[in-house]
């Protein structure tokens, strides 16, 4: 019998943007279980349930030590009956029957495999499953028409499933930097997404590109893409135009819209580390071939004795922002996704402001609030500044 008074009870604020969440998660078994249920809900078009599980998982990520009993969770926010049942199951029986059942279910496995293909979302996967397609093999045999993104996704499936390392992200950063300064001297690139939060791996690499002089960034993306293409670095790319217009009388669109910047979804052909060369090793002529991705190391090119190819495919997202929106873009693209969602909820519900990756609009004053740094935006929102490494909610 444990004396309840001796059990540490935790306390955390309910908005994730009021908490400091590092990558040092003391409850990975519980958060993995809740994240799996969140993913299943999201893949099943149940976004509300998905968010509820994400919030529950995020609360546990913020705890300073492992949970040993449900009594410790009394009074914690965002833990609904369903999440508590899952947690109790794991604490008492070592596993949650619901999580285990979901993991094993044919439907979930098929949704996972199919949505793991770049370019395939939950709706498409759902349709395919209804047509009896549960695997990559069945998809290939089915004669379904795939769009260009999905074809590339299928072709590079194995590579894209491999987590991207920080070293690979840095190597791609050097390439993107070279591209950007070649086509527009003075332009700057910043690593965003999970790597900016200090993650050691990611599913892709995200970069934000800007120029210190407003307007100089216009038309930049097509030039960067052409440069990368001419050097043979791109296996796939799709660029979307900037469609953001600051409305005179307030945000015309929901503040959560993320897709209004000039943006490029791409798949990079990254040469292997030995071929890339690093600053630590002496430079052989071969090593200058970070640019090698193109000529030597193609499918048709010479292969090493092992028969392995000397490059891999990596998902890369590029975003271009005018300098006037840079701080908002940086904040909006650093994540985590839940942290972003909570920031916007805080802004809307507690401050009567609309936050997006482009701007912050004050509904009471009826005007946009300008900012040149993330710190300023936190201040406008009445929040203590949380650095990227503590936004891992
Ligand atoms: N983002 C967002 N909502 C979107 C798209 C992006 O909030 N619809 C933001 C939050 C993400 C960041 O952009 O953190 C990058 O998106 P990713 O999907 O690449 O997420 P991460 O980089 O955080 O994770 P990973 O390490 O898996 O790439
Ligand atoms: Mg990312």
Explain how this protein is built.
By secondary structure, the chain is of the alpha+beta class. Helix content is 40%, strand content 13%. The chain is globular. The chain has helices at 28-43, 47-61, 81-93, 97-104, 106-115, 122-130, 136-142, 148-155, 157-161, 166-183, 193-196, 220-230, 273-276, 326-334, 337-351, 374-380; strands at 164-165, 188-192, 201-202, 205-210, 234-240, 262-271, 311-320, 353-355, 360-362, 367-368. A five-stranded mixed sheet has the order 2-4-7-6-5, sandwiched between helices. A three-stranded antiparallel sheet has the order 8-9-10. It has 16 helices and ten strands. The two termini are 34 Å apart. The protein binds 2'-deoxycytidine-5'-triphosphate and magnesium ion (MG). 2'-deoxycytidine-5'-triphosphate is lined by residues 193-194, 199, 202-204, 206, 258, 333, 335-337, 340.
Topology, please?
Blueprint: H1 28-43, H2 47-61, H3 81-93, H4 97-104, H5 106-115, H6 122-130, H7 136-142, H8 148-155, H9 157-161, E1 164-165, H10 166-183, E2 188-192, H11 193-196, E3 201-202, E4 205-210, H12 220-230, E5 234-240, E6 262-271, H13 273-276, E7 311-320, H14 326-334, H15 337-351, E8 353-355, E9 360-362, E10 367-368, H16 374-380
Parallel strand pairs: 4-7
Antiparallel strand pairs: 1-3, 2-4, 5-6, 6-7, 8-9, 9-10
The structure holds 2'-deoxycytidine-5'-triphosphate and magnesium ion.
């Amino acid at each position: 019998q444990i004396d309840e008074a001796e059990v540490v009870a935790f306390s955390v604020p309910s908005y994730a943007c009021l908490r400091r969440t590092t990558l040092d998660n003391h409850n990975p078994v519980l958060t993995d279980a809740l994240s799996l249920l969140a993913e299943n809900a999201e893949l099943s078009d149940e976004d509300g349930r998905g968010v509820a599980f994400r919030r529950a998982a995020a609360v546990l990520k913020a705890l300073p030590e492992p949970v040993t009993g449900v009594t410790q969770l009394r009074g914690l926010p965002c833990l609904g009956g369903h999440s508590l049942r899952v947690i109790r199951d794991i604490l008492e029986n070592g596993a949650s029957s619901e999580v285990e059942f979901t993991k094993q279910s044919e439907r979930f496995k098929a949704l996972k495999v199919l949505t793991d293909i770049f370019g395939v979302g939950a709706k498409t996967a759902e349709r395919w499953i209804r047509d009896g397609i549960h695997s990559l093999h069945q998809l290939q045999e089915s004669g379904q028409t795939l769009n260009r993104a999905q074809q590339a996704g299928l072709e590079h499936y194995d590579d894209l499933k491999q987590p991207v390392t920080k070293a690979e992200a840095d190597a791609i950063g050097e390439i993107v930097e070279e591209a950007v300064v070649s086509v527009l001297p003075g332009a700057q690139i910043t690593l965003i997404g999970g790597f900016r939060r200090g993650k050691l791996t990611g599913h892709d690499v995200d970069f934000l590109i800007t120029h210190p002089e407003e307007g100089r960034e216009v038309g930049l993306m097509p030039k960067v893409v052409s440069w990368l293409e001419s050097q043979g670095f791109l296996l796939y790319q799709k660029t979307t135009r900037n469609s953001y217009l600051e409305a005179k009388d307030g945000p015309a669109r929901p503040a959560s819209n993320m897709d209004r910047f000039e943006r490029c979804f791409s798949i990079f052909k990254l040469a292997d580390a030995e071929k890339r060369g690093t600053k630590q090793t002496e430079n052989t002529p071969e090593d200058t071939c970070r640019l090698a991705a193109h000529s030597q190391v193609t499918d048709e090119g010479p292969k090493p004795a092992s028969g392995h190819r000397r490059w891999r495919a990596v998902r890369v997202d590029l975003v271009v922002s005018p300098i006037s929106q840079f701080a908002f873009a940086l904040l909006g693209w650093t994540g985590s996704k839940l942290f972003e969602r909570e920031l916007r909820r805080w802004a809307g519900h507690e401050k009567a402001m609309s936050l997006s990756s482009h701007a912050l609009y004050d509904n009471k004053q009826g005007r946009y609030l300008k900012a040149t740094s993330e710190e300023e935006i936190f201040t406008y929102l009445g929040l203590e500044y949380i650095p990227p490494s503590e936004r891992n909610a």
